[in-house]
Design goal:
- 42% of the residues lie in helices and 12% in strands.
- The chain is built from 18 helices and twelve strands.
- The strands form four sheets. A five-stranded mixed beta sheet has the order 7-6-8-5-9. It has a three-stranded antiparallel beta sheet with strand order 1-11-4, sandwiched between helices. Strands 2-3 form a two-stranded antiparallel ribbon.
- α17 (338-347) packs antiparallel against α18.
Length: 372
C-alpha cells in the first residue's frame, strides 16, 4: 500500500495522503469507524468490507455516492463483475468501488487424490460425496472435506439447488423453500455420513489449517488460502477447481471489498482521484501481482501473473458464477450465533436439516420485523 501511495503522489504531487491503518480484527476496525462517524471526523477514504458492513454503512448514510465522480472522470464501471459492484450499490447509487475479491472454490490435495486413484476433482454433488467417502480415513483422522459450519460454507449449496438464504431485496428469508432445504440436506449429509467434519475435530482452528495439516483432502476456501499454504505448509501439493455443480448451478459466494468516500471528507475530489487510481486497470494490476486476492475487473483475469501461478485457475474460473456474501444491517451477530448453532445441531443429528433452517428463518424474520 505504501508503494502504491508513493506512486500516486508522483502522479498527483499536490495531493498528500496520510495512510493510517487500524490494527486488530475486522470488528475492531468497524467499531473505530463508527466512533469516528459519531464524532464527525471519519477518514476521507475508507475500506468497506462485505458481510453486513457495506449494507450497514449505506443504510446509515455515512458514505458519499460516487455516480457524479464516475461520470465526470469516465471511469470504466462496465469492466467490473456485477456481483462485486452490486454489493456497494443501493437505490441506483454506487457507494464504493470494489478493489478486489475472492470466491470460494474447491481446494484439493493432489497427492491424496492420486493415491486414491481419483484422476480429477469432482464436478457434481454425487462425485463430491463419492470422492469424500473414498478419501476419508477416520482411523488416521483424515476426512474428505473439512470446513466449519458457518453460513458462507453451506449457503452455496442452497444456491446450487435453486434456493437461497434471502430474496434479492433482503426483505425476506428463503431458507425453508424446498430447494434450500435440498441444498442444506446435502451439506448436512456429508457430515452425518462421516465424510466431512469440522476443523476443531482434527485440532485445527479453520478449514485451511486442517487442509495444510494433511487432515483434509478437500476444503472450500478463497484465494487467501494460497499464500497461507505456500508460507505455512509448503510441502502440501494442491490445486483449485470450481465448485461441483448441484441440480441447478455451481454458484459460489464471493467476498468483495471496496474503497469509499465518507460523508465527513473535506476533500472528496482528491479522494476520488485516489480511489480511481487504486482501482484503475493499472492500479488493480499492481495489486493483483501481489497474489493477495483476485480482480473485480473482468479484463484482468488473464494477467501474466495468473499464467505463472496456475494454481489460481479454479478460483478465476469461479468468478463469473458468484453471489456476493452480505446481510442487511443488524445481522452480524445472528450470522455468527444462530446460524452456526443451528447448523451444528443439524450436522450432529440433533435436529433435522429442515428444522434447523426453519429455526434460522424464524429468528431472522423476527429481526427483520423488529427493524420494520
Amino acid at each position: 500500500m505504501q508503494k502504491d501511495l508513493s506512486g500516486f503522489s508522483k502522479v498527483y504531487p499536490n495531493i498528500h495522503v496520510n495512510y493510517r491503518p487500524i490494527s486488530g480484527s475486522g470488528s475492531n476496525y468497524e467499531s473505530v469507524l463508527r466512533t469516528r462517524f459519531v464524532a464527525g471526523n471519519a477518514p476521507d477514504v475508507i475500506y468497506v468490507n462485505n458481510g453486513g458492513e457495506s449494507s450497514t454503512f449505506m443504510a446509515d448514510h455515512v458514505l458519499v455516492p460516487l455516480n457524479s465522480y464516475i461520470k465526470a472522470s469516465h471511469f470504466s464501471i462496465g469492466d467490473f463483475y456485477p456481483s462485486a459492484l452490486a454489493l456497494f450499490e443501493k437505490g441506483g447509487k454506487i457507494y464504493g468501488i470494489p478493489k478486489d475479491q475472492s470466491p470460494l472454490a474447491l481446494f484439493y490435495n493432489t497427492a491424496m487424490f492420486k493415491k486414491a486413484g481419483i484422476k480429477s476433482p469432482p464436478t457434481t454433488w454425487a462425485q463430491l460425496a463419492a470422492d469424500a467417502k473414498i478419501l476419508t480415513n477416520p482411523s488416521q483422522h483424515v476426512y474428505g472435506l473439512i470446513n466449519s459450519v458457518q453460513e458462507p460454507r453451506w449457503a452455496e449449496f442452497l444456491y446450487q439447488s435453486g434456493g437461497g438464504v434471502m430474496n434479492s431485496t433482503m426483505s425476506k428469508f428463503t431458507l425453508t423453500s424446498p430447494a434450500s432445504v435440498k441444498g442444506f440436506q446435502f451439506f448436512v449429509n456429508l457430515y452425518r455420513h462421516g465424510y466431512a467434519t469440522v476443523p476443531t475435530s482434527v485440532g485445527a482452528s479453520w478449514g485451511g489449517q486442517a487442509f495444510g495439516m494433511g487432515k483434509a483432502a478437500m476444503v472450500l476456501s478463497g484465494d487467501w488460502l494460497v499464500p497461507f499454504l505456500n508460507q505455512t505448509y509448503p510441502k502440501i501439493h494442491f490445486n483449485t477447481a470450481v465448485l461441483p455443480s448441484g441440480p441447478v448451478s455451481n454458484i459460489s459466494l464471493t467476498f468483495p471489498v471496496a474503497y469509499a468516500i465518507t460523508k465527513d471528507s473535506k476533500h472528496p475530489g482528491a479522494s476520488w482521484k485516489l480511489i480511481s487510481y487504486l482501482t484503475s486497470q493499472s492500479g488493480m494490476t499492481r495489486w493483483m501481482n501481489l497474489g493477495l486476492a483476485l480482480p473485480t475487473r473482468k479484463s484482468l483475469v488473464n494477467l501474466p501473473y495468473y499464467k505463472s501461478h496456475p494454481v489460481t485457475a479454479g478460483l478465476l474460473q469461479q468468478l463469473p458464477h458468484t453471489i456476493a456474501w452480505t446481510f442487511p444491517p443488524g445481522f452480524v451477530q445472528y450470522s455468527s450465533t444462530t446460524m452456526v448453532d443451528q447448523a451444528t445441531l443439524a450436522i450432529e443429528g440433533k435436529e433435522s436439516a429442515a428444522q434447523a433452517l426453519a429455526n434460522m428463518q424464524k429468528a431472522g424474520q423476527a429481526i427483520l420485523s423488529s427493524q420494520g
